[in-house]
Amino acid sequence: MGKVYCVANQKGGVGKTTTAVNVAAGLAAAGLRTLLVDLDPQCNATGAVAREPSPRHPLVERTPIREAVTPTDFEGLTLLPGSRSFHDVDHLAQVGGAESELVAQHLSASLGAYDAVLVDCPPSLGALTQTALATADEVLMPLECEYFAMEGLTQMIELIKRVMTRSNSRLQFGGIVLTKHDPSLELTREVEREVREFFGDVVLRTVVPRDVALAEAPSHGQPVMEYAPRSRGTRAYIELCQEVQGRE
């Protein structure tokens, strides 16, 4: 079975889906059979690769993952689409205990066909995020270089620690990814300095810059390396993929 990366942060707008989509595309471009799993009811990862959400979520219906996935236009990248079904979102948001374990087992059951799996989580600490963490080998946490960057970070890290202490957990902290990085701004430099001083080597060296190509690519249904292959965003995500793989 390949490695499962969970991309999570309870705060919205930090580049979580952008990171999940573009790391998945980068690993696929490197020749890995890669699966992108959309667990966010907003289904932004699904739209970012020009696919439609499923009428029902396969994790609710317990549909075999191999029957629910769909290929994308990006070679080597397969998608498990999300669902906007209010019934399914409500059901998955309330699962807990034994049922949460069953959902995690169902998600894990068919992941062996892939070299890498990227799970895009909703911006919350709820059941969907906890289920994703329970299936993952590593968690990547995008962190925006803004004033409120540290808000809620402690809660997210505490949740990760709780999952890591479970007897059947294989989860490790893959790292914090600084996003929307603009070194010309004093605020960016301050946030980066504080985060690196506090978390040390947990913070990945690669930073994701503010780049209009990263904002435009999803509207074209493409990863940034396909939409704008010479952009700063593309270069950053290629370097991030190399760093993530190099830490294994």
Automatic annotation (TrEMBL):
Every AAA domain range: 3-172
GO molecular function, one term: hydrolase activity
SUPFAM superfamilies the record matches: P-loop containing nucleoside triphosphate hydrolases
Record bears the keyword Zinc-finger: no
Top-level enzyme category: hydrolase
EC number(s) recorded for this UniProt protein: 3.6.-.-
InterPro entries named among the record's database cross-references: AAA_dom, DNA_Partitioning_ATPase, P-loop_NTPase
Keyword annotations of the record: Hydrolase
Signal peptide: none
Pfam families, per the entry: AAA_31
Name of the featured protein: Soj-like protein
Organism: Pseudobythopirellula maris
